[in-house]
Amino acid sequence: MSGGPGARRILVVDDEPQILRALRVILREAGYDVVEAADVETALDRASIRPPDGAIIDLVLPDGTGVDLCRRLREWSQMPVIVLSAVDEEEMKVQALQAGADDYVTKPFGPRELVARLEAALRRTNGTPDEPLIEADGLTIDLAARVVRRDGEEVHLTPIEFDLLRHLARNRGRLLTHRALLVEVWGPGYADDTAVLRTHVANLRRKIERGGGPPRLVRTDPGVGYRFSG
Question: Where 4-aspartylphosphate occurs along the chain (predicted)?
Answer without folding.
Answer: 58
